[in-house]
User: Fold this.
Amino acid sequence: MRLCADTDFRGPGAELNMLGIYFVDGGQHLEHRVFVDHSQPKCFSRVTYKGALQGKDAHSVWIGDCLIREAADGTDTYELNRNLVLTEGAKADSVPNLEIENGEIEGAGHAPRQAASTTSSSSPDEPRRSRGRGPSPRRARLLRRADQPDWRPRGGRPPHGNRRGRAGQVP
Assistant:
């Protein structure tokens, strides 16, 4: 199944907070395609998608495209995808893409792939232990972390140590 969500800012100062959660079971394929088109000045966007996968041949694909057009001065954007692979045979792919046509932006938090999209897995005996006696300490930490917000409020520090600045500046 493929789900597409496209956003085009129609006026200056617009805001977008897009949240997605998904579960993929054995034999299922789920693809999310997100496109955020910053075409107006001083717009703000946060896109956060989180997924959990289990079972043989469970497969998710997340493609996050963000375009900051030349007219979009003062843009502040961040996209994030996190996946929790619960069993062997499940696979999660993330493809964050950022295109910047304007150097006068507040922040573009599309960090390198390691920071913008993460996939965690558990050991082979984790699912058995979880079904029998509740989550292991490691799984409980992963689940607690998966429940925390990943976007920063306007003017706050970016998550995961990303740095703000103009395009082309070296932090």
Confidence is low (pLDDT under 50) at residues 111-116, 127-133, 156-171. DSSP finds three helices and nine strands in the chain.
